[in-house]
From TrEMBL:
<feature type="transmembrane region" description="Helical">
    <location>
        <begin position="46"/>
        <end position="69"/>
    </location>
</feature>
<feature type="transmembrane region" description="Helical">
    <location>
        <begin position="7"/>
        <end position="26"/>
    </location>
</feature>
<dbReference type="InterPro" id="IPR036259">
    <property type="entry name" value="MFS_trans_sf"/>
</dbReference>
<feature type="transmembrane region" description="Helical">
    <location>
        <begin position="170"/>
        <end position="189"/>
    </location>
</feature>
<feature type="transmembrane region" description="Helical">
    <location>
        <begin position="402"/>
        <end position="426"/>
    </location>
</feature>
<keyword id="KW-0813">Transport</keyword>
<keyword id="KW-0812">Transmembrane</keyword>
<feature type="transmembrane region" description="Helical">
    <location>
        <begin position="281"/>
        <end position="300"/>
    </location>
</feature>
<feature type="compositionally biased region" description="Polar residues">
    <location>
        <begin position="470"/>
        <end position="480"/>
    </location>
</feature>
<feature type="transmembrane region" description="Helical">
    <location>
        <begin position="143"/>
        <end position="164"/>
    </location>
</feature>
<feature type="compositionally biased region" description="Low complexity">
    <location>
        <begin position="456"/>
        <end position="467"/>
    </location>
</feature>
<dbReference type="InterPro" id="IPR020846">
    <property type="entry name" value="MFS_dom"/>
</dbReference>
<feature type="transmembrane region" description="Helical">
    <location>
        <begin position="81"/>
        <end position="102"/>
    </location>
</feature>
<feature type="transmembrane region" description="Helical">
    <location>
        <begin position="248"/>
        <end position="269"/>
    </location>
</feature>
<feature type="transmembrane region" description="Helical">
    <location>
        <begin position="378"/>
        <end position="396"/>
    </location>
</feature>
<feature type="transmembrane region" description="Helical">
    <location>
        <begin position="108"/>
        <end position="131"/>
    </location>
</feature>
<dbReference type="Pfam" id="PF07690">
    <property type="entry name" value="MFS_1"/>
</dbReference>
Length: 480
């Protein structure tokens, strides 16, 4: 237990530093983009479209890369795969650390687009899989909430630092912290590779299914055995592996679609309507981050057991919807600040969703599952900026069909309302990888092997091979 706690503490430090480096540039990047593309103005359609296109291209890349990275982490370990995105994330901030002129901005834009196809979301995805390797089902929602709280804490510290550091120094600090995070991870974080033996398990499972079909019995539902590079069919099979997993994937798509719309709209909306600058963005993000961090670290662990992760997901989505409605109707600069109070429950959505997904798969499929959900979220990030960037630019311009500057944010709220309704069908999703089901699962699988042994003769399965296969069988192959 002490060894696991030590490993998790190193993971939390790694996530904190990498998140800090990522978040510290957020309040400044809007001003840097507009200074490079439209100097001296508060409204810039070009900047909105450029940011939207970048977000869409990154979404295409991450949709393809997340399932691959998650699957490879199941094969080669979480630490090995973490090295790649953490190393690549250093490059873009290092470019703007040198200069923020137009030419350097274009270089940053190109490098950021390319590297983010691998880096965007992959560190969080692998960290979730690492946690799932080291905590039980009953503790998973709490652990995911703590990880999310660590990220929110990094968000608070980064935003507070951005509030008092000049724009040039911000990117230098981000570069330095990214390098420190990579070095720390390589030195202190222990490798985590799920226990598996596919070479022995998969052939037996295939023959077992054939035998059951011949007898006319029901075939147990199992997760697809991915190749090293999963195909689209593999991903679709995984997403359809259980009703709860499918519903969670739909909610993940809608939630990420709304988040992408918020990212593409909110800052440009606030800048055009209330003339917000870097410092005001930092203040707004700081307040929301402090509230969210405290809630995830201290309140969410108390609510997981009595309420359940399914209801926490619905609560988070509902209040996220309310928050966007308030944003879209904001009539004064203080309104966005007041609505940040809703962050106390809004932050429950993401860790609760990931916890539900994690419970639908076995220990050897955590990387696949988290990677596929990240891929689904990335698909939403492809579509969202293409729609919301156009809506934002249109309704902030003089050519708007009617006067409603926050119309794009109202559309985000409608998307979250649909996600909320969908989440109500999930409820408290049953665990397909819990320890309490393991004995009955292994007993059922043992019966399958015994039947095959009788029908195929003593030569087909020796006692030693049967015992080894039972030990190596992932729990995902035995679902109720």
């Amino acid at each position: 237990m002490e060894k696991k706690l030590k490993a998790l503490s190193h993971l939390y430090v790694t996530v904190f530093m990498s998140s800090f480096a990522s978040f510290i540039v957020v309040p400044a990047i809007t001003d840097v983009t507009m200074f490079a593309l439209c100097p001296g103005t508060d409204e810039c359609s070009v900047a909105i479209y450029v940011s939207g296109i970048q977000q869409a291209v990154i979404g295409i890349g991450t949709a393809l890369m997340m399932p691959l990275i998650g699957n490879l982490s199941d094969q080669y370990g979480r630490k090995s795969l973490l090295t790649l995105p953490m190393a690549l994330s250093i490059i873009p901030s290092a470019v703007l650390a040198c200069s923020r002129t137009t030419n350097f901005f274009y270089a940053y834009y190109a490098l950021r687009t390319l590297t983010a196809m691998i880096c965007e979301g992959s560190i969080n995805c692998l960290a979730l899989a690492y946690l799932a390797d080291n905590v039980t089902d009953s503790q998973r929602a709490t652990a995911f909430g703590i990880l999310s709280g660590i990220s929110s804490g990094a968000y608070v510290c980064a935003t507070l630092a951005a509030r008092f550091i000049s724009a040039g120094s911000i990117f230098q600090v981000a570069t330095l912290v990214s390098m420190l995070a990579l070095v720390y991870m390589r030195i202190f974080l222990e490798e985590s590779i799920p226990d598996r033996d596919d070479s022995m398990t998969q052939p037996i499972l295939k023959e077992s299914e054939d035998a059951i079909q011949k007898d006319g019995n029901v075939v147990p539902r199992k997760m697809p055995a991915f190749k090293r590079i999963p195909s689209l069919r593999d991903i679709i099979c995984l997403l359809r592996s259980s009703p709860s997993f499918t519903q969670a994937a739909v909610v993940a798509f809608l939630y990420s679609f709304a988040e992408g719309g918020m990212l593409a709209s909110s800052m440009y909306y606030l800048k055009a309507r209330f003339h917000f600058n870097k410092n005001q963005f930092a203040d707004l993000l700081l307040i929301a981050g402090i509230i969210g961090t405290a809630s995830q670290l201290f309140i969410m662990p108390l609510l997981v057991s009595p309420i359940g992760d399914g209801r926490l997901l619905s609560i988070g989505l509902f209040f996220s919807c309310v928050n966007n409605i308030i944003y879209s109707l904001a009539w004064s600069p203080w309104v966005p600040y007041a609505s940040t109070a809703l962050s106390v429950v809004m932050v429950y959505a993401s860790p609760s969703l990931r916890s539900i997904v994690s419970k639908q798969v076995g220990p050897a499929e955590q990387g696949k599952a988290q990677g596929c959900i990240s891929g689904v979220s990335s698909l939403a990030n492809i579509i969202a900026p293409l729609i919301f960037s156009h809506l934002t630019a249109l309704f902030l311009s003089e050519e708007a069909p009617f006067h409603f500057p926050g119309f794009s944010l109202l559309c985000v709220a409608i998307t979250l309302a649909i996600a909320f309704i969908t989440s109500l069908t999930i409820g408290n999703a049953p665990s397909n990888s819990s320890d309490k089901n393991s004995s009955s699962c292994m007993e059922a699988y043992h019966n399958i092997i015994v039947q095959l042994h009788k029908s195929s003769g003593p030569e087909a399965f020796s006692p030693s091979s049967e015992e080894a296969s039972l030990r190596s069988t992932p729990s995902i192959y035995c679902k109720n």
